[in-house]
């Protein structure tokens, strides 16, 4: 009985002594990365994040743990090429300031559609060359420049051949046809 209690007490004391040795956050993250089960790995990372102040150097800023270079699956002993060298910065100012491409891409992120929209024309003026209608009664307008537009709503503009029409770009990719002097617009979509 005493031997069992002594062994148990010795085991508890040794585990406490082992846990008192504070490991760094980086070492704890390395241990977590070594866990194979994804759920257990996530729990390990959560535990490290929750108890970050208990680790040695926990108050310091945490830098990213360096990732090991992985060999491709089809080449067992292939080595990864070294990362590209960073350009050295000279102490003399150059004539042209260098622009970081990643910084300009970050600034332009989400603006691609806006740039395309700024480059497009806002309206088009054309003369009606021919008028026809669909089976459902929608108007089909052929302009002198060869474009063909179909009516998308039930607005009636009473268009006639030879009449000048302005097709304007609207919100959300919509287009509207209007005749000067008339305050109504007809929603249209381009067919050809």
From TrEMBL:
The lineage of its organism: Bacteria, Pseudomonadati, Pseudomonadota, Gammaproteobacteria, Alteromonadales. Residues 1-22 form the signal peptide. Residues 87-98 have a biased composition (Low complexity). Keywords: Signal. It comes from Alteromonas australica. This is Type IV pilus biogenesis protein PilP. Residues 71-101 are annotated as: Disordered.
């Amino acid at each position: 009985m005493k031997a069992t209690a002594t062994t148990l007490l010795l085991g508890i004391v040794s585990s406490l002594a082992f846990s008192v040795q504070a490991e760094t956050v980086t070492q704890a993250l390395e241990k977590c990365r070594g866990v194979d089960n994804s759920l257990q790995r996530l729990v390990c990372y959560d535990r490290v994040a929750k108890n970050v102040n208990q680790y040695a150097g926990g108050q310091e800023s945490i830098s990213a743990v360096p990732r090991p270079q992985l060999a491709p699956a089809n080449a067992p002993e292939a080595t990864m090429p070294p990362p590209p060298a960073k350009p050295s910065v000279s102490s003399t100012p150059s004539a042209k300031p260098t622009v970081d491409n990643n910084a300009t891409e970050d600034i332009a992120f989400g603006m691609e559609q806006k740039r395309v929209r700024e480059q497009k024309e806002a309206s088009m003026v054309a003369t009606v060359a021919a008028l026809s209608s669909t089976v459902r009664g929608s108007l089909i307008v052929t302009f002198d420049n060869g474009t063909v537009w179909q009516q998308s709503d039930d607005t009636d503009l009473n268009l006639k051949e030879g009449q000048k029409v302005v097709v304007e770009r609207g919100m959300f990719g919509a287009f509207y046809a209007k005749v000067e002097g008339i305050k109504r617009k007809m929603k249209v979509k381009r067919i050809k």
